Amino acid sequence: MASAKVVLTDYVWESLDVEQKTLEGLASLVALKTKTPAEFLPEAADCDALLNTYAGPITAEVMARMPKCKIIARYGIGVDTIDLEAATAAGIIVTNNPTYCIEEVAEQTMALLLASARKVAFYDRLVRAGRWEVPPGKPMFRLAGRTLGLVGFGNIARAVAVRAAAFGMRVLYSDPFVKDGQFPVPGEKREFAELLAESDFVSLHPPLVPETRGMMNDAAFA
Predict the structure, then answer these.
(1) Model-level pTM?
(2) Where are the beta strands (DSSP E) in 63-180?
């Protein structure tokens, strides 16, 4: 008989077979579809573990109302919706999924890059309005020969680098934790300011932490 209680705050997939199979005989799973702590706390107040997708933020106050909680596990890479200092103080382990949707996000990045370079959304609206004209959307660019600057060079950014290089782009990256040539993927290391100055397109990939929040400020755009 399961002795622990696991609460899933929210999910967007159809089946919970993986969760139920993993927890079978170990814990009972209570699956919710909530958006805020106010919605999930009535069920999570006595939980032993919290599975979390988007519902939040999970603050010190929220954790205080879950005195039995030992772990908060995020379905995703970022943990910026969870107060890590408060979790540490409360003795709650916080985990993430560092390989979540790497390929999908890299593909989405390239889709947005192509849409930006080729003015896809603009011309879609123009054609729907019955106009077939090129000049209104200028300037447009081919990706080949252009420079892409990747801020952060983690798993997703490196997957983007491979795709961008396949389009003929020159790839730069800025990451204080990655050495030049550390990974066998396209990319030349630059300091952040140098990358901004040399790049035609910039894609942001660092985690949202105090050190990176607001990094694209007035000075970055100057």
Answers:
(1) 0.88
(2) 71-74, 93-95, 147-151, 170-174
